[in-house]
Specification:
The protein is an alpha/beta fold. It has 2 domains: 7-160, Rossmann fold (3-Layer(aba) Sandwich), CATH 3.40.50; 165-279, N-(1-d-carboxylethyl)-l-norvaline Dehydrogenase, domain 2, CATH 1.10.1040. It is built from 14 helices and 7 strands. The strands form 2 sheets. A 5-stranded mixed sheet has the order 3-4-5-6-7, with helices on both faces. Strands 1-2 form a two-stranded parallel ribbon. The longest helix is centred in the middle third of the chain and has 29 residues, at 162-190. It is globular and about 65 Å long. It starts with 7 loop residues before the first helix and ends with a helix. Residues 161-257 form the 3-hydroxyisobutyrate dehydrogenase-like NAD-binding domain.
Length: 280
């Protein structure tokens, strides 16, 4: 397990509970300490992890981090992996990054597949994530028992990179819903409606969406801008006009900045319900 943070740690815990040996790496001392406390066997580098295992799940935050932990010539996974080693790209990165890492890995007989994670931290804690995959079917067959421990619904969308595209589109729809919910509930509040009664009604109507269903949860939104940047880069590459996406990028960036600054920075942990009620 490469990355032992808010997603990687609960995944490691579930795998340990299912009887797997879990070897892990994270540059953060705090993350390593928490992982050691639940029984993860820590190693000093991704390379060291690859040298004593047969597969790795990469759960880091950004493209450049994924590239480093996979392809660094001294300490990356590929440097320590034997032929046949499998890397599951759980991180949300550009599809081109997954494809490029697959090409680099293939030179050493290592296979990269997409295993992107949906539904966030609560689903990681519960072991019931939705996982969008892309890559060789035989390799995904090998990973399926592992993925089934941490996920409930697993979809294969195509070749390597396809899982990243699926996750990108999912996140685009998520941020559309967050912005639309926020604006609708603010307007409802200003017009005097009971917001929780309104939310419950909408959840039973055609306006229902997952973001509205989880409106009362803490929602830090750390990756919103990154998600929209990946989407708009793909739109540019394919010459597809996506005017709504440009608006959503601006809106979600503004909402996140306001929320994170709210209550002297404590707003980052607040639910969208709390934030909306405070900004009618």
């Amino acid at each position: 397990m490469i990355g032992l943070g808010k997603m990687g740690l609960p995944m490691a815990r579930h795998l340990l509970g299912a009887g797997y040996r879990v070897v892990g790496y994270d540059p953060s001392t705090a993350s390593r300490d928490r992982a050691a406390a639940v029984g993860v066997e820590l190693v000093p580098s991704p390379r060291a992890a690859a040298e004593i295992t047969h597969a790795a799940l990469v759960v880091v935050g950004f493209d450049e981090q994924a590239v480093e932990v996979i392809s660094d010539p001294q300490d990356g996974l590929v440097a320590g992996a034997a032929s046949g080693f499998v890397i599951g790209m759980c991180s949300t990165v550009q599809a081109s990054t997954s494809v490029a890492m697959a090409e680099v890995a293939a030179r050493r007989g290592v296979v990269v597949v997409d295993t992107t994670l949906c539904l966030g931290e609560p689903a990681a804690e519960n072991g019931d994530m939705l996982i969008m995959c892309g890559g060789r079917g035989d390799v995904l067959d090998r990973l399926l028992p592992v993925l089934s421990v941490v996920g409930k619904d697993i979809f294969r969308l195509g070749d390597v990179g396809a899982g990243q595209v699926g996750k990108m589109l999912n996140n685009f729809l998520l941020w559309n819903c967050v912005v639309a919910n926020y604006e609708a509930l603010r307007l409802g509040g200003r017009l005097g409606l009971d917001l929780e009664s309104l939310r419950q009604a909408l959840l039973l109507s055609s306006g229902s969406n997952w973001a509205l269903d989880t409106w009362l949860r803490s929602r830090p939104m750390p990756w919103a801008e990154k998600d929209m940047r990946i989407l708009l880069a793909c739109a540019d590459e394919t010459l597809l006009p996506m005017p709504v996406a440009g608006v959503i990028r601006e809106e979600i960036t503004e909402i996140k900045a306001l929320k994170n600054a709210w209550k002297e920075g404590e707003g980052v942990k607040a639910s969208m319900d709390e934030f909306t009620r405070a900004h009618l």
